[in-house]
Each structure stands twice: as C-alpha cells, then as structure tokens.
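Appendix B: complex inputs.
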Amino acid sequence: MYTKIDRDQSRFKQIVRGKIRQNLRKYVTHGELIGRQGRDLVSIPIPQLDVPHFRYGHNGAGGVGQGDGEEGTPVAPGDPDQGDGTGQAGSDPGGHILEVEVSLEELAQILGDELELPRIEPKGKANITDEKLKYTAIRRTGPESLRHFKRTYMEALRRQISSSTYDASRPLVVPIRDDKRYRSWTSSPQPDANAAVIYIMDVSGSMTDEQKQIVRTEAFWIDAWLRSQYHGLERRYIIHDAAAKEVDEETFYHTRESGGTRISSAYQVCIDLMNRTLPVSDWNLYVFQFSDGDNWGEDNQASLRLLREQILPHVNLFCYGQVESPYGSGEFLRTLRDGLGRDVENMVLSEIRDRDAIYDSIKLFLGKGR
Amino acid sequence: MAISRVEPLPADLAEIQVQMEEYARGYGLDFFPTIFEVVEHDQLNAIAAYGGFPTRYPHWRFGMEYEQLAKGYNYGLQKIYELVINNDPCYAYLMRSNSLSDQKMVMAHVYGHCDFFKNNFWFSKTDRKMMDNMANHGNRIRRYIDRFGVDEVEDFIDACLSIEDLIDVYSPFIKRFDEPTFHRFRGSDEVNELDPPGKFKAKEYMDQFVNPPDVLAAEADKRKKQQRVQEKFPREPVRDVMLFVLEHAPLKPWQLDVLSIIRDEAYYFAPQAQTKIMNEGWASYWHSTIMTRQGLTGADVVNYCDHHSGTMATSGGRLNPYKLGLELYRDIEDRWNKGRFGREYEECDDYETRRQWDTGANLGRQKIFETRKIHNDLTFIDTFLTLEFCREHKFFSFGYNEDTNYYEIESREFPKIKQRLLFSLTNRGQPLITVRDGNYKNRGELFLGHEFNGIELQMNYARDTLSNLQRLWTRPVHIDTILGGVKTILSYDGKEHAIEQFKPSK
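Resulting structure:
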C-alpha cells in the first residue's frame, strides 16, 4: 500500500528532470546548484513544483510575527523570483526553491545519494591507517562545543533536587562543572588514502564568464564528493590558452586570456606536476579538464599522445567536460573519442550544454566509482 | 484499505492509550473512537504526503511532498510525531521511533484533535467516512488513468488543482441564493417579435413622426439592457468557481468525475485550514494539561519539557499556530475565570483596577469549550485577541518593503497587528475570486472578478492559473482585477495571454 508513494515520487522526479510532461518543467526553478555558501554550511535546493493559483503578490503583503525588534527591522527577505507586478514580464518562473542548510560532509552524501554515485575504491597505501572518529560516547570532560545539553541539564537537576537547592516556584537550574557532560568519540582505524585533483581549464578568448561559472559549479561538486571519499584532498589548477601554467584557485576562476588554444601545453604542465609533486604510487590522481573544445588542429595529435602515454596510465580518472561555447567548434571531444576509442576505462567524456546539464555531467564523471 | 491492516498496539502503548483516553474523558473531551497505529518513518512520511491518508489518487505532488518530508527526515531537519485523520472512527498514526514519553504526549495531543474534529462547528459538515472515500477516489482516478493514459489524466488533475481553492467554504452552512428557476417563461409584454418595443400604433404615413427611429432605437436598447440584467448568468457573483465549472463547462464524464473528486476533497480539507490555530492550540492545551497534571512520571519530565518547548518554539519572528492557539486558550480561560469580560470590564480604564480584576467567576473551562465549538480562526482572533495579549507576546505586524526587498517590522500598534492577522486569515489568506459572467460577451466566455482589497494578484501565477482554467472551460477566460491602481482585465483564449488596462477617466 505504501509503495504507491514511490510511484508518485518517481513521477515527480521525472517531471523535474524534464523526462516527461515538458510543459511542467518551466515551473522548476534551477537556480544555482550551490545556494548560499557559508563557512561550513551550504544550502542546497530541493526542487519544488507549484500548481499555479490565484494568490497575492508582494505589494501590500505582510503578516504578523512575534519577537523583538524595532519598526523597520527586517524579518525575512522578499522572494527574489518575484515578478515586478506590472504585468510586463511574461516568462518569470512560477516555482521557487526550498533551501535546506547542510554541512559539506552531508552535502557529499546527498550528492552521492541523488546521483547514485558508487563509493570509490581507493588505491595506494592501504597499509597506512588513520583514526576515524565517531561521536557516540559521553564523558565528564570535554570542550564546551561538545556539551550534551540534555544530559547536563538532567545532572544539574538531579544534584539540585538531592541537595534541596531546587525551588519549584523558581525552577532555575544552573549546571556546575561536575554536572557537565560532553559528547565524546571512539575511534576506529581506517585505511588512509590521499587524492589529488588537477583541474585544467581553457581560458582562451572563446570561454565566456557563463561557461566559467559552469566549470566552477561543477568543480565545487566534484570537490565535495572526492573530499568525502578521501581523507585528504589536494587540489591543483592549471590554466591554458596557447601556453599553460599552474595557478591558484582564485586565479583559475578569474583569468581571461585572449590567445589561441593549445591543449597539449596544459597536458605537459600536468605531467610535470604529477612527476614532480604527486608521485603516482602515493596518490589517487584525478584530472578534470574543461574546455570549449576549440583546439588548434595541428595540436590534436600531440595532445592525444601525451594523454595516452603519460596521463591515462597513471590516473584513476581522466574527465573531459566540454562546455558549449558560442565561439568554439567543440571538435576536441570528437578528437578524443575517435583518437582514443570509447573503451578507455578511466576516461570519461561529457558535453555540458548549459547549467542544467551539470547534474548529468557530474553523474557521468563520478558514476564510475574510480 | 488501511482498516484491515491495523495491527494491535504493542502492550505498553495500549496501556498508555487506555490511560490517556480516561484522562481525556475525565476533562469532558468527547471524541470518536480513536484507533492508533504505529508506523515506520517512511510510512508516516508517505501518509503525511497524502494529507494524512494512507492512500490517495496517484499524483506527482504527493511524490514531491514525500520527497521533501523524506529528505527533511533523513537529514535530521524535521520529524513528524503523529498524524490524525478527521474520520469516524478517528485514525491516528504514531512514529515508531518516538520514545515512550513522546508517545504519551502525542496520544494526549491526538485526543485533543479528535475532540475538536467531532465538536467544532466548522467540521460538522465534513465527510466522516473520508477514509473510505479517499480510497474510493483513488480507485476511480486510477481507473481513468488505465483507460485514458496517465499523462492525460494527470494533466487534467493539474488544471483542476489550479482552482481547487476557489470554493465557497461557507456554502455548506448557508443558502446564498434561491434555487434558480429554470422555467421562467417570458411575459407577453416582454417580447413582441413583430413590432419593435415601444412602438405606438400609427398609420403608415404618420409612423415616422409618431415613432421616431432614434427614440425606438433608444427604447430597444433600454429593454435589451433590462433583459440582460434579468438573464445575467450567474445572477449574482458565485464564489464556488469549481462548482460553476462543474455545472457549466463542456467536460467529458470522466473529467466531471475527476473535478468533482477534487472539489469534494477541497471541501473536506477546508475546515482544517480554517481552524489551524484553534485546532493545534486545542490539542496542545490538552496535551499540556493532561501531561502536567496526570500523565507525567519523573522519568518523562525532562523529555516532555524538551519536546513541548520544541513544539512551542517561535523562530525567526514567525507566529507559531501551536503557541498562539495554546496561549490564547489559556488567556481566555484566565479571563473568564476572573470575570474579565463584559461591558463593565471593557469600559474600565484604570490600569490597576483592571490588573487586579477578579470576580471569581470561574467560567474559564466552560468558555474555552464553548469557544472550540463555535469559532474558526478568523472569529477566534477577532473575538479574543486583546491588546494585553499582543503586548505580552511581543506581537508585531510586518509588511513588504519594495526598496529593500525585505519584509520589515511595520508596527507594534494593536489595531494594525490585529488587522494584519485577521487579513491573513480572511478567505484563508487568498484573494477572493468570483464568477461574474458565465456568458461574457454572449460568447460563452468565462469572466471572473477579483474582489480587490488593496493587494494585487501575483501576475505570473494569475496568468498560469488562467491557462489552466481555460483548459477546463475550453472557451476564453478573463479576470477583472486592479493593477497599479488601474482596472485591468487579463485574458487567455487558449493561445495567447492578453492584458487590457483601463486608464482612469480624468
């Protein structure tokens, strides 16, 4: 009987993913996959479809609340999706996004669940172990941040009652040092495995800001997932046009060059990096390359050779994501496919047409469980 | 059917149930027989997604609800403790993972709801066999899906859902108009096919002087207008847009059935929306009363306090219906116990006298029972929300500031607050829409009116709703509203949206 809900749920998911009932999909708001990003918390959107009703707009809207605050104190943000109410805009979406805040760790879990990602089997130094902590125990000492509120309260209450300092008409319970209880951990050994990700991005003139945003979003999710799978995650960034160099994260996302495109230059830097600082014996290596696929024709053979001989044999996974560009020819994807064949096990090729395709692309990249 | 699936409660819970029921009866609560069932979290989430029922017709929005509840539960953001269905017998579902002291409190809470369902006037016309009928609705719609395909039926359901709130929640209780007389034959003076109306007898050569053409034309015009008023359809604006569509739109039999199912369910759920504050407040009042007076053992106390204060928490300045309802009942009880009502008290403006006021009337309990019988949220707030209560609970009203795109605290003045609160409860916080003309322009078009009260419709939603309505009505549909202070008619003819604005004639 209760399985009926599963059918409704998968129906909903299909609509959201645009597989059926295309006319409904306009109510699904996509927004950013990453909502706001706080210190450790990320708000993730849960897609929601609205059945349209006649309802009030913003103008004159309001209500009653409870609590402190002066006149003019903001209580809630307005809805950014709100139409302007003058009836000119005709295509504003009718849906909105529910946001929930989760930690990065949970986020990776969610991502894994959503995309049905397999857990990665790490290679490398399985003999090195690391302590994995679980907060399941209670202790009498510990940092305040781990204080167990209810247990502490109960201890304090117990003490006050037994020492007759509890006044029922003024039920004030103040814990003293002895009352305090803290969450504590037990540790279990886990094999340690390190991973390094090398991101390569084409920053030639044909890559626009929109496309970089796509790369950034995708890289964020890849980071989140790999981080959840490995104890330590090292990230390196390489940008290239006709020449390539290693840069920091900030530069990676904000550089714009105007030159031509020579992908082999980036591969060379990548290989140097691997040889120099990331010995294959110690690291699980991942290479993610993003480009609009507009490489100089005579460079293709050189690129293929480097990839085949010096990158693919050493990395867990090589992913090539091709973002669609109004300028690029997008031919490099074909070059890779034809040049290396479809059955290279640790290579994944993906075309990312727009923001909506990020989801599918991540699934493609990480779906191999390597 | 869920009924056949009910497993007996485990012994410890069954014992608690007997106890709680006894306590509840002891206070004079009066409820349908109540059947508890313990379910796993995913089942409870599924039932919650179905609006409290174990089964409904197939529709994606239940899947969406479920997805949100399931995610919320899995990520530890929210948890449903219990669900109660307004039905005879009353069904209540308990989450298996609740601790025993949670279950105790939850059962006490459930008896509060059951009493409310049975005795509150606004529930008096609801279908008490809805459990069976929901299953029945599900079967009917599933049959249509088998015959006509899931896309077609679901698409139609979506269109119906767009107007599910356009019902007349008071119609079960009052008779708005006389039954239409379908056989109103016209009097002989009304129609004279041979002669134009108002024509005097005259010889042919005198005719154009006795009956000047422009006078005749004016007369004909006047009569036509009169006739139009008489033949107005509907004769008065109709709030139950769903019923109007059901009665007059050219729908296929299965479509009529689906629409009527959705309308029935809308009427069934309407009182719950109308009494959210009262119903939750009442249940909270009783769980708190029963638990603190009888139900609690030493081992339960801290857990109970934790759970109760969690339920009563207000966060982000938002009103919590549980808390508002509970506090207001307590306030009423206190006032009627002390005789703080009636003209003498109202007219007393000496602060100290008012504060000390206590006639020992001791009518509190009686008063709250009476309140739960006759009021809905709107009248509850209107009748019992006082200045003192607002002050004590730090109420404020907030409004939308276009410049900052924020909702901001607007005022702490009592009339303003009360007005805002009442407004948000009027017509369940939704714009009032009526059918004004079912034969607009004499072309079978549907003309709706928005009874404007200062707040504009949200345009993108209004447009999409019109599109859905048009699919039901099949002829062009229009809605008359105010936009930017100007009379505006939005139209949709099945192909494109049109907007017509009438500049003020100055």
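Chain A has a mean pLDDT of 75.
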